[in-house]
Specification:
elongated; about 20% strand; Arc Repressor Mutant, subunit A; alpha/beta; Rossmann fold; 3 domains; single chain
Amino acid sequence: MGDDRGGARTPINIVRDYLPADSAKAAALWLCERLGTRPEDIGWKGGEQANSDGARDALTAQTASASERKRIRATPFVYRDPSLIPPREWVYGRHLIRRFLSTTVAPGAVGKSSLVLVEAIAMVTGRALLGVMPVRCMRVWYVNLEDPLEETERRVAAICLHYGIDARELEGRLFLDSGRTAEIIIATRQRDGVKIAEPVIEDVIASMAENEIDHLAIDPFVSSHRVTENANDEIDIVAKAWNRVAEAGNASIELVHHVRKGQAGQGEYTVDDGRGAGALLAAARSARVLNLMSKDQAEKAGLPTNRGFFRVDNGKANLAPPPDKSDWFQLVSVSLGNGPPNFYDCGDQVAVVKPWEWPDPFEGVGTDELRDAQAEVAGCTAAGARFRLNLQSPEWVGIPIARALKLNHEDKAHRSKINRMLKVWIETGMFAVVQGKDAKGNNRDFVEVGKHASDAGE
């Protein structure tokens, strides 16, 4: 009964490994006691093993369920030198990390699929297409579970055209699939609860290993399961299944997710606005959210429209940097040139994501312009005027500054430019904020000239 049977571990082997059993006999008796079975019933007489394969198989069958899982044990902590602990394996920026889930949450038609694809191609080519330098050329698998494969191919072609990439650079390292031809549904809800599709998971992991995949993108997450979207316990099972794929596949996984329906027009989105239960967010190592540029932001940036511009923030919006410090992107249209002969404009137009930077407030503004602004404010102050810090005030200090710089203080883009410059000038001492009382005796913040530009060595 204690024989290894050609290398296969029996219940006896397991008991001897994990419990103080000196012999196969002691282990067998321990098992019989725990199972409530007499030794005689399974072919044992007087504690000796009967010469019966059937007896051995009977005990094995009765203890199979106990041997199917590893016994849970508390693992003692053993300190090791921090310098010897392997660093986190970041795959792309500080969003994608090997063996973990990441999520991207956004409303429809913002540009999340294009963003994820451009990032995929950046990883494959090792180029900083969006300002993030990949650690090396990688192998990426992008699966769009909604669109046909041809649509993804159009997007890849447009990205290559826009960024001047030879498509041959992608061959062998970029993998594309569509849910229309090969569904990847890793969990379904059945009468007795959620059932994980183990064969599907095994296939995904095997394909990742076979192709040495570094990063897998699933777009969208909702199409990778058939469970109740608002049930935290069910989504938690699905998220943990994807985490298991990331661990076994030794790759980072991005789950592209939609925001809840009915959220439009209710302000900016946060990562908490993802559709359904919050268990997905809890399971993700990193989460980011996409927000369209508002009309007010477009006016401040001096843009004719807000369409095609969006911001990406990691974590919650209330912890995000101000708009001019966020990561901004723009969707540009790229023609594939695949229309009929002599009808070039009839071909496909495909949106591609590219980086966009908030306008530099100091573009065209140097030391001479600063001196002009200081002179204008100082002259008015000498004549008895007082200027407020609050840009909503009719006495805002930005009004004389605008006059000196030949800007229109009523134009939102110009007001934004002046206000941002003024913050820097105050920080550097070119202007000073002083406390004072207005005509009604209320305490207010006023602005005066600080160090003159010439005195500051500008």
